[in-house]
Amino acid sequence: MAVPELRMIDGTGPSQDEIVRPTPGGRRHTVRWVLWGVALVVVVGVFVASRINLDYYAIQPGTAQSVQPFITVPPGKGHPVAVPVLLTDVEEARVTALSYLFFKLQSDTALYSVPSVTGGVSPAELDAQGALQMSQAETAAKVASLRHLGYAVPGTPVGAVIAGTFPGTPAYGVLNVGDVVTAVDGKPTPSALALTTALTPYGSGQSVTFTVRRNGTAAPGPVTLTLRRTVVDVDGEKVVVSVGIEPQDQIDYTYPFPVSIDVVNIGGPSAGLAMTLGVIDTLSGGQLTGGHKVAATGTMDALGDVGDVGGVAQKTVAVENAGATIFLVPPQEYGAAKSKDRSGLKIYAVTTLDQALRVLAANGGRVPTGTLDAAASSAAG
Fold first, then answer.
1. Are 190 and 252 in contact (CB under 8 A)?
2. How is domain 52-151+257-381 classified at the architecture level of CATH?
3. Is 226 left (phi over 0), alpha (psi -120 to 50) or beta?
4. H/E element, 79
5. pTM for this entry
6. How does pLDDT run across 306-359, given as a tens digit for each residue?
7. All residues at 6 or more sequence positions from 129 whose CB lies less than 8 Å from its CB, including other chains
8. What pLDDT, in 10s, does the model give residues 179-207?
9. Which residue in 96, 140, 225, 230 has the most C-beta neighbors within 10 A?
């Protein structure tokens, strides 16, 4: 029989009332409270870790989807597409103290420093830049595809579009991404070069009035800035600027008929090549891929040149997951794509639209020629 625990009160020995007996279930209650305490600490720790952002973004494989749902042409101009071209993207996530190890262990995920992804701009400006780049890519895809098919698509320079501003400069927070500058102190600036030239005579401390179309669509209005010499970081180099803008040519094009490309929920210019191929496929008979599942990534300009993009290793995984058998990439990213290729996927490096079309023709695609389409469009007109 167990002996109850005794507690000495006055040195004369315990009385019956002074015997302390264990409370039934007391130990279980103590253990339970300890466990609840540990659980609370864990929950708080997880919550705090999920709120601590590290200096990284995780770039992961995204999706590969048909470009055709984003393309609209007038009735009678389009054709059913047998096997559509796929555009592909990546998913981007900010790395936290909680997710770091998870992302680090994913073989198809790459971690990039925040400055290398954002360029040091705010999230709002980064989103605006992505939207502008996509809009420019859609325009270039329409122009390049229609010109390849033999249509005349004349362009008129109408100003200098703001592609970015630098923090701490006079333009920051005053001129926005997408604004178009059409004049400086009344002198027309139909291009980025014209804008730069017009600003050359001005020095720090002088005031300049820009004529600006907000977001490129509003009526022209004045915006006055006082110039100030400011040192900014441009691709790792220190540069002195007075205004703090990154201007690009803004060109308005005249199309032979309406063509709409409206890609949603994707920013940046990397879908340019895929969109261009998609428009050509729609307008030329719908047999461009030769029955193959073709994916493409790369920027596109109005001249039909393919430019470099990022995240191609992760995009390669995405197109493989979608079952693509041909992947067109810029030559700069051929090695990155090959590092993730699997059996059954052919990867081709292309520098121009014409080269991409030659690849498709070599794989059985029915590729139109500009001369034939020009004749057909003239006859139809």
1. no
2. 2-Layer Sandwich (3.30)
3. beta
4. none
5. 0.83
6. 999 999 999 999 999 999 999 999 999 999 999 998 899 999 999 999 999 999
7. 121, 163, 164, 177, 267
8. 999 999 999 999 999 999 999 999 999 99
9. 140
- Please tell me if the domain spanning 52-151+257-381 has the same topology as the one spanning 155-253: no
User: Cα(12)–Cα(247) distance, rounded to whole angstroms?
Assistant: 96
**Whole-angstrom distance, CA of residue 83 vs CA of residue 295:** 11
Among 266, 263, 285, which Cα is nearest to 372's?
285
Burial (CB < 10 A; 0-12, 13-18, 19+), residue 63, is middle
Give dist(CA 299, CA 319) in Å, integer.
17
Contacts of 235 (CB under 8 A, 6+ apart): none
Q: Is the dihedral of CA 120, 121, 127, 133 positive or negative?
A: negative
Q: If you search the block for the tokens 């900010």, which residue do you land on?
A: 94
Place of tokens 């690009």: 248
Backbone angles phi, psi at 102, to 5 degrees: -60, -50
Domain range list for the chain: 16-50, 52-151+257-381, 155-253
Please state, in angstroms and rounded to a whole number, the distance separating the CA atoms of residues 17 and 377: 110
C-alpha triplet 119, 122, 127: angle, nearest 5°: 90
Q: What is the pLDDT of residue 112?
A: 87
CB 309 within 8 A of CB 270: yes
Distances (CA, A) of 265 to 37, 57, 63, 90, 358: 43, 19, 12, 12, 31
Residues 151, 98: Cα–Cα separation, whole Å: 54
CATH code reported for the domain at 155-253: 2.30.42.10
Residue 111 near residue 95 (C-beta atoms within 8 A)? yes
Q: What's the pLDDT band for 381 if we cut at 50, 70, 90?
A: very low
Encoded amino acid at 54, one letter: L
| Amino acid (one-letter) located at 75 | P
Residue 149 CB burial class (10 angstroms; 0-12, 13-18, ≥19): buried
Look up residue 365 and give its two tokens: 């695609």
d(CA 180, CA 158): 8
pLDDT at 37: 82
Supply the mean pLDDT for the chain. 88
